[in-house]
From TrEMBL:
Pfam families in the cross-refs: TspO_MBR
Name this protein carries in UniProt: Tryptophan-rich sensory protein
Membrane topology: Multi-pass membrane protein
PANTHER family, sorted: PERIPHERAL-TYPE BENZODIAZEPINE RECEPTOR (PTHR10057), TRANSLOCATOR PROTEIN (PTHR10057:SF0)
Entry-linked InterPro entries: TspO/MBR-related_sf, TspO_MBR
Keyword presence, Membrane: yes
Signal peptide positions (record): 1-18
Lineage: Bacteria, Bacillati, Actinomycetota, Actinomycetes, Mycobacteriales
Membrane-spanning intervals of the chain: 82-100, 136-157
UniProt keyword terms in alphabetical order: Membrane, Signal, Transmembrane, Transmembrane helix
Main subcellular location of this protein, as a coarse class: membrane
Gene3D superfamilies referenced in this protein's UniProt entry, alphabetically: TspO/MBR protein
Amino acid sequence: MRLSALAKTAGGSFAAAALGGLATGPAVQSTWYKRLRKPGFQPPPKAFPIAWNILYSDIAAVSASTLDTLHDRGDTDQARAYTRALAVNLALNAGWSWVFFNRRQLGPAAALAGALAVSSADLTRRAGAVNPPAGIALAAYPLWCAFATALSTRIWLLNR
């Protein structure tokens, strides 16, 4: 994996994490968030930054490897398509935090989480088509996003 590719994908992942964190950080300490009814299957608060740091690192590494392989094969069209899919995915990822925590729109946040889960599955499919072990390495991401969709949806239903 080329350092230049990793720097780009890590930069994108870090930007998504930082933008999402701007909305999340203050909100999780707010009275609004503390008063929300949450399901019993919600992990402890400390689990979220651990899981997301691992996932963002995974996204960056798998994406860099996938893009390098595509460029080495001379498949620039597929590399551009993967880059677009990654950009959409990271925008959805950061956007969820703003819709949920900043705008406090629980229903739209649940829908956005679902879109993120679909986008994550697509990104994983694309990486796996280029390099099956890379797809396997990224498989935790859509699984976590599917869980986040279930969690977001349940919070919305409990607080309507």
